[in-house]
Amino acid sequence: MNNDLILLGHGSGGKLSHQLLDDLIIAKLSRIPARGQNDAALVELAGAKLAFTTDSYVVDPIFFPGGNIGDLAVNGTVNDLAMMGARPRFLSVGLILEEGFSKAELSSILDSMAAAAETAGVAIVTGDTKVVPKGKGDRIFINTSGIGVIEHTLTIDGASAKAGDLVLVNGSIGDHGIAVLSAREGLEIDSGIVTDSAALNGLVQELITLGEALHVLRDPTRGGVATTLKEIAAQSGVNIVLDEESLPISTGVKGVCSILGLDPLYVANEGKLLAIVAPERAGEALEIMRRHPLGKDAAVIGEVTGAADGRVQMRTSVGGLRGVEMLAGEQLPRIC
């Protein structure tokens, strides 16, 4: 294999992505240490504490059960800001269109973006549009950047997990990746699976009432829950143990993953968050999630077992422990 070439796996969010970022992109552009690599950057301007993030969306197909590339782009950027405890305020939108793309489809996508922004309470304030020759793109790519305001003094980031903390998720995992895969491959499976794409900033604002008991928030997108927890364990220098029996996975997702040989732990989500919370407030956090429309199936799925070397393990249904590693390659390309 030619190690000089970019592979699809470099966009997976897993091991290859981290290698590309650490060895080349971050090393040349910012030199941000691993502990500081979160869903958004924290910056201060004229006394205000802000979160700033950017993301690009190349999902295929651009329309899938429950959503499309437009609302996905808005929700994904809103969520990256929210995971830092910020209140999202402003977005930019960059459109890269391929010659020959349908204006009717573009109109539908833009309508979805406007509706998603209104639901999230953010304003789209600037943007850019480029058109590339037919055959030089893939219909439409979207870049969204966002700015949010941090209105509290809490430290919420991937390096803040502590021994004894509990790990919560606000609902079933793997829905988005399987919805996109089913549409892409034309799978005729009557599973009722739709994307979970949603803006989580409202739920986060309620969780912030936990105060200093709320240590980490992260949305497990590319690479899924497993890869995200590996990142957190490494940033915080802790070990995490998951409970297989507690993982909320829908029957439909379980069925498709079983047929295709996929592990739901590595399948992307776009409307789920992982919250790592001090044990004495975890019950309250679970109640907050379950009262919210986006958290009715919330569950405690694991615990931080102590300061160590960044291992993640799964307590299986038969009582043993197995290692959970970061996604090695590209399980499902172009799901966001």
From TrEMBL:
Task: Give all residue intervals belonging to the PurM-like N-terminal domain.
Answer: 38-150
Alphabetical list of CDD domains matching this protein: HypE
Q: Which residues form the PurM-like C-terminal domain?
A: 162-313
Q: Name one GO biological process term.
A: protein maturation
Which InterPro entries does the protein's record reference? HypE, PurM-like_C_dom, PurM-like_C_sf, PurM-like_N, PurM-like_N_sf
Against SUPFAM superfamilies, the record matches this protein to:
PurM C-terminal domain-like (SSF56042), PurM N-terminal domain-like (SSF55326)
A Pfam family in this protein?
AIRS_C
Q: NCBIfam families, from UniProt?
A: hypE
Which family is annotated?
Belongs to the HypE family.
Task: Give the protein name, as stated in the record.
Answer: Hydrogenase expression/formation protein HypE
Source organism per UniProt = Geomonas silvestris
